[in-house]
Write a structure and sequence with these properties.
It is found in: Cell membrane. This protein is an alpha+beta fold. It folds into two domains: 103 residues, Phosphorylase Kinase, domain 1; 114 residues, Transferase(Phosphotransferase), domain 1 (Orthogonal Bundle), CATH 1.10.510.10. It contains seven helices and 13 strands. The chain has a seven-stranded antiparallel sheet with strand order 1-2-6-7-5-4-3. Strands 8-11 form a two-stranded antiparallel sheet. A two-stranded antiparallel ribbon has the order 9-10. A hairpin with a 4-residue loop joins strand 6 and strand 7. Helix 4 runs antiparallel to helix 6. The longest helix has 21 residues. It is globular and about 50 Å long. The chain starts with a strand and ends with a helix.
Length: 235
């Protein structure tokens, strides 16, 4: 189900049966609501009058599908078509001639990466770490085995595994995701995060679902405190 709303030059598309409107969402784009920043944009926490909490990702890119898209089209194409308990829900998106916004379900416990390397890391017991790892694996398994064509995430890392109020894992950030028809596709350049990229991908530029498996292995190593990757050390 999709609901379309137009207001003040903005076009809002809502995938879920939720009441969202342009004005209320734009009011959330304030400095005090920022919960994350990255090279692709800024993430805000938004609370609707109904009490619904959403995460609003404002991308740097200015146009859908253009050179400055910054994963906007990829997120819509993938997350807008799939549904799994351990994959973050895309609630909808907004765009105008100057900006693109992606609307997600809000994850109050942030990312696995921040939890593992934050002040409360010692409180994350082995049983909980194991549970989070299994849940994230279920999300990736769905992408690789239950989607047709299968989806390669291409940026699996601990900071892209988000945790809800019950610390349940949700795979997130599909800006680099790609539908895979097989055999291995050859990319024109390497995409992903330093420390998580499979060596064979770096050497050959060929991608298949195995590059996600390698990246997830790095996540597991970090979750078990075996090794910190360059990505974690740089944050």
């Amino acid at each position: 189900m999709r609901k379309i709303q137009k207001s003040k030059g903005w076009r809002l598309i809502v995938f879920q049966q939720l009441h969202l409107n342009v004005e209320e969402l734009l009011q959330c784009l304030k400095l005090e609501n920022i919960i994350g920043k990255g090279s692709a944009g800024v993430v805000y926490r938004g609370t609707m009058p109904s009490g619904l909490e959403v995460a609003i990702k404002q991308l740097v890119g200015s146009s859908r599908g253009g050179q400055r898209d910054h994963g906007f089209s990829a997120e819509i194409k993938t997350l807008g078509q799939i549904k799994h308990r351990n994959i973050v829900r895309l609630l909808g998106y907004m765009s105008n001639n100057e900006s693109n916004l992606l609307l997600y379900e809000y994850m109050p416990n942030g990312s696995l990466g921040k939890l593992l390397h934050g002040p409360n890391a010692a409180e994350l017991q082995w049983e909980r770490r194991y549970k989070i790892a299994v849940e994230a694996a279920k999300g990736l398994c769905y992408l690789h085995h239950d989607c047709s064509p299968l989806i390669i995430h291409r940026d699996v890392k601990s900071h892209n595994i988000l945790l809800d109020s019950n610390l349940e894992a949700h795979v997130a950030d599909f800006g680099l995701a790609k539908y895979f028809q097989g055999p291995a596709d050859c990319m024109s350049s390497i995409a992903g995060s330093f420390g998580y990229i499979a060596p064979e991908y770096g050497y050959t530029l060929k991608v298949d679902e195995k590059i996600d498996v390698y990246s997830f292995g790095v996540v597991l190593a970090g979750a078990n405190n075996w090794e910190e990757t360059g990505d974690e050390l740089g944050r």
